[in-house]
Amino acid sequence: MSGRDGTRALGLPLERVEAADKATGRAPYAYEHPLSDPLYLHAVTSTVARGRITAVDASAARGTAGVRLVLTHTDAERLADTGDREFAVLQSDRVAFHGQIVAAVVADTPETAREAADLVRVDYAAEPHDVVLTAEHPRLYRQQDEDDPADTEQGDPDAELARAPVVVDRTYRTPMEHNNPMEPHTTVALWDEGDGRLTLYDSTQGPHTVRETVSGVFGLDPGRVRVVAPHVGGGFGSKGEAHAHDVLAAMAARALPGRPVKFALTRRQMFSLAGHRTPTIQRVRLGAERDGRIRALVHDSVEHTSTVKEFAERSATTSRMMYAALHRRTTHRLADLDVPVPFWMRAPGETPGMYALESAMDELAQACGLDPVELRLRNEPAVDPRTGEPWSERRLAECLREGAERFGWADRDPAPGARREGRWRVGTGVAAAVYPHLFNPGSVAEIGYDGGRYTVDIGAADIGTGARTVLTQVAAQALGRPVEEVLLRLGDTDLPPATVAGGSSGTVSWSAAVLAAATAFRDEHGAEPRPGARTRAGAPQDTVAQGRAVFSFGAHFVEARVDADTGEVRVPRMLGLFSVGRVVNPRTARSQLVGGMVMGLSMALHERTVMDPRFGHMVNADLAEYHVAANADVGEVEADWLDGEDPAAGPLGLRGVGEIGIVGTAAAVANAVHHATGTRVRDLPITLDRFTG
Q: Which residues are known to be catalytic?
């Protein structure tokens, strides 16, 4: 696609248009919006995992100088809609998990609010709780979803497994994990009693989504709720919808009209109030011929959810389509435990699921005496195994072959543990990556001209991905104008509606709206519009071609080194090669892919939330003990992509890049570690104790 006047903006590695504002501190995040005379909220959270509140003594808190409000379940506002129990904040005496909000204090300073919150005394009638997921948990059940069944089956996989000459039957486990965006979940709420308008300055991936939730919970007309989020310091899925803190902040603001109420979750509170990735127990069975061709694939996944609200990770879903197999079954089971509500964490489902599947593929390659790259190539499906639909484009084989060449895979000794350099055992591993192309209809953009500059308005959120820059490029090319003449405004529900920044769908969905608005603007006003010209248009509903399976694919290659004496694991280099359709901005795309790969490395080697079953609380709920990859853990990370575009994916031929970088990375690391040591680690993370003692 080129601009009508020959202007080319797509494909240029432009710097982020907001880079200077962020570097100099001028870009306001939710907590930093300049508001006069703010108050500060601190939440009191439960210290039991299940039970009932029997008494609350807030007298000392209320008597503290500077305290303006104390809320408990006995005096909090009654909400209009508590059907979603995550948002039923302070509505009853029931406690469903450790860390649930049970009271709140609002004061003149954050220090006073926190001190007074510590003075609130809550008594409980504790009840027996259950926070431990097991493969045979007595409360396992099948999620009911007519649109996306929990279980699928094709052919007779049990019979094929019984006759297959080569069978891999392994169980893989991933732990509870938590998103930890640099900016905590934050809301600043202001209730204007005069016009009955609620304003939220929120750290969110979807301003319009938060407005819809909050207006419903409080029974307000959505037009009287404004959500502002021009800059967001990361989300990775956890900020994809509203959470309990949004409701609590709004509740406090409505009790203190005219005063802004600032509420930022502490790092520890984020572990219980902002979602997590459920632990998984995944049994994968592969039945194959001796030449490695898979005949049967069975993937059974067990996960937990909360008693408050159901959330399913669906980690076996990718096994329905990734490789050719005439006989296949996938199952998902949930156990509702006394834990906080799970939620989106970068590539939910695909990330843990592909760890299990790609680890099993590595084990199958070893059992068949095949190179792991060759095994994957031999099991390429000609069409989508789920539906029989042709692929829009499936370039996984190219990613594997070209990635292997770039990485130097041909020099690999196939024998595990064969290579040693001093005290380091050295190995290499590979894994495939996949992510579905998601397009969310409903986004609208409006374009105006003021005589010297074009404005593009859309209520999307830039969560650090570069959306502001990429959408500017799309608009500039569609309008046939230089990017310097385009000002993109986003992050506000006063702007036209936009879908959530999640599931790698943001740029895809919003760019379709921006393109439609720019095209309509040029058609209506021509190449020389008059000042004041404006046009609004929405993304077409039929953007994605029907009858095609549209996915992104990729291949990860990893070198791992394991200290022969201590078991310390190092990853000096990683290569990811992807097929994601058209890349609008190579600079921001590479940033997203590298970021995903580093998160996958972190998942493989570090991340694990430890639950104490005695008390039902998370013992390492801070960044001192919940380890994430730091600079010293990350070696050379190269992310690249195959040139091209996918017309079936939409008018610009692009697919998302935010999620696919993490998918498969942990398996590639685990496979490399096995190749280095001969020790197969099937339970993440891969810590040094796996190789010592």
A: 659
